[in-house]
Amino acid sequence: KQEVTQIPAALSVPEGENLVLNCSFTDSAIYNLQWFRQDPGKGLTSLLLIQSSQREQTSGRLNASLDKSSGRSTLYIAASQPGDSATYLCAAGMDSNYQLIWGAGTKLIIKP
Amino acid sequence: ETGVTQSPTHLIKTRGQQVTLRCSSQSGHNTVSWYQQALGQGPQFIFQYYREEENGRGNFPPRFSGLQFPNYSSELNVNALELDDSALYLCASSLTWLAGFQETQYFGPGTRLLVL
Q: By CA distance, what is A101's nearest residue in B?
């Protein structure tokens, strides 16, 4: 059974810092790995999707990497801004049933 | 372009009651997926509807049921509510049933259900 873990559960950093959010999964038979952002009252927004054959994806100040062999993905946020404050969730897309297995998220606070 | 909308935004029910939650998918999307997100947890997949047919189901009991209408809007029905059903219920729409795999899902803001 796939389990997805995100550490830390919460993170508070000053504006301008570069930071890394971690996501680990127990079953390497994934189709893809996705990162989402969740803002209160606004639902979930897809940030980056990495197919299992890829090693990383980039979008603006965000870069996500995937290492299937070690069961890990990281989301790198460069030059953090207060508007980046949100909960970040990763989700593993399972090859067997096309379902997403989600982590519990990392709540990120960027202090001005 | 109208995004995914859900109604109501908040709901309070008592144990044993029944509830219906509604979701309007984004224009042109024929697939709707429903998720349950307990406080402090990630979403859990309930089921997916593709062109009015159930197209996959997570580990939820039969008292969780759904419908998809010809305009691709959808309902989630929960019978015999239990305290543990208290959660944020999210729906997401996509162009095809390969939601989240070969294309992006677009999420609504959710319905927060409290069962007393």
A: B44
Q: Verify whether the Cβ–Cβ distance B43 to A44 is below 8 Å.
A: yes
Per-residue model confidence as pLDDT tens digits over B17-42: 999 999 999 888 888 999 999 999 99
Q: Would you list the DSSP string of B17-39?
A: --EEEEEEPPTT--EEEEEEE-T
Q: Do A89 and B100 touch (CB under 8 A)?
A: no
> CA angle B87-B90-B95, nearest 5°?
165
**Nearest residue of B to residue A89 by CA position?**
B42
Among the partner-chain residues B92, B98, B109, the one whose CB lies closest to the CB of A42 is B109
| Structure confidence by residue, pLDDT tens digits, B63-93 | 999 999 999 999 999 999 999 999 999 999 9
Q: How far apart are the first and last CA of chain A?
A: 41
Which tokens sit at A28? Answer: 């390497």
Ranges assigned E (strand) in chain B = 5-7, 10-13, 19-24, 31-37, 44-50, 53-57, 64-68, 74-78, 87-94, 106-107, 111-115
Distance, in Å, from the CA atom of B109 to the CA atom of A27, rounded to the nearest integer, reads: 30
Whether the CB-CB separation of A4 and A100 falls below 8 Å is answered with: no
Please provide the size of chain A in residues.
Answer: 112
Strands B87-94 and B74-78: unpaired
Count of A-B CB contacts under 8 Å: 46
Residue B6 carries which side chain, given as an amino acid letter? Q
